Amino acid sequence: MADEPMSLVDAMEAGRPELLRAARRKLAEVIDGGVAAHALARLLQELDRLDTEIRRLDEIEEDEDDEEGMDEEWDPSLI
């Protein structure tokens, strides 16, 4: 089961990635709950912006994790 979602205040104190994730979740919940037609396009645009930034940060983190393993000496006998 997934962990309980962070509040925006808790997420803000935890760091930028957590804040972006909490804001994305909150925004998705608001949209799912129903919004005025005139506001929907702007909210979806903001949701897309948040999602794009989160995915970019995740890719950077994955790249950094991959680079950490590259410090080990390569052993050709492993092939």
- What count of helical segments does DSSP give? 3
Number of strands: 0
Cα distance spanning the termini: 39 Å
Work out the helicity level: over 70%
Radius of gyration: 18 Å
Residues in β-strands, percent: under 5%
Largest sheet: none
Tell me, rounded to a whole number, the average pLDDT. 86
Question: What letter string, H or E per element, gives the SSE order?
Answer: HHH
Structural class: mainly alpha
The global form is elongated
In the predicted model, the low-confidence regions spanning at least 5 consecutive residues are none
Structure write-up:
It contains 3 helices and no strands. It is an all-alpha fold. The mean pLDDT is 86.
Write a concise synopsis of the structure shown.
Helices cover 73% and strands 0% of the residues. It is mainly alpha-helical and 79 residues long. It is elongated, with a radius of gyration of 18 Å.
Attribute tags:
79 residues, mainly alpha, 3 helices, 73% helix
Topology:
Elements: H1 8-14, H2 16-33, H3 37-69
